[in-house]
């Protein structure tokens, strides 16, 4: 429904110390007032306007019941004085109805027995208005001034001292109650960077480009096949001429040898991983080897016939 964050507090006058107990109280107060403002219940349930440190629970109004919420601490360790309980106290003082106990608020002290345990409002109020931070500032200024300059440098830049913390937080509480609505922060537009990505091609453009590549590869492979076929024809003509001259001695045997076709190479299975152009080149090489073997066999047969005729 609503959310509140400590990084919104600079808008209300708190620019430093956004993670301490007092800032957690301001964040819880901001959340409570924002929810009630959205539900149009902020006028009826003002909550505890003056933070005294005492435990406070909102009372039901005349027209509408108070808005009830439940505290979910998750995996956080619920130690006494934890900042989550500072946010809880701020939400309670803001007018929300949250079931709780005061045993974990800052300032709760255990006595000798259960009846003696009680919350000290003065100590709790001190934490709500940043008194513990002011005490630490004074200690560092006296004992370790160099550490004070580094640890509280942001406070020093804004002229915030230990004595002015309570007045500062009172102004923040009043500003939150005056306007708890959320406002979007103005952010500069991201800088436009030049992109160097290639233009995406359409389907027709990709198809035409692929066809051009295939045509170029096929034309290059076709030229190689023509050169190989011319060389094979020269070898065959010379081989067959020599074979015919040598076979004239025995016409019957020569005619029988000429009628025999050259042996065909065994058919091989096509490799699916071989492209069409590569397959053509391999087939041309195989044809060339087969023709050379056929010419060699014919020459051997011619030599044998000449030896028989002599």
From TrEMBL:
GO biological process: ribosomal large subunit assembly; translation
Residue ranges annotated for the Large ribosomal subunit protein uL18 C-terminal eukaryotes domain, each copy included: 165-218
SUPFAM superfamilies tied to this protein: Translational machinery components (SSF53137)
Taxonomic superkingdom: Eukaryota
Main subcellular location: cytoplasm
Similarity remark: Belongs to the universal ribosomal protein uL18 family.
InterPro entries linked to this entry: Rbsml_uL18_euk_arch, Ribosomal_L18, Ribosomal_uL18_C_euk
The entry's keywords: Cytoplasm, Ribonucleoprotein, Ribosomal protein
Subunit text: Component of the large ribosomal subunit (LSU).
Gene Ontology MF term list: 5S rRNA binding; structural constituent of ribosome
Any one GO cellular component localisation term in the record: cytosolic large ribosomal subunit
Protein name per Swiss-Prot or TrEMBL: Large ribosomal subunit protein uL18 C-terminal eukaryotes domain-containing protein
Location(s), subcellular: Cytoplasm
Residue ranges, annotated region (Disordered): 252-276
Record lineage: Eukaryota, Viridiplantae, Streptophyta, Embryophyta, Tracheophyta
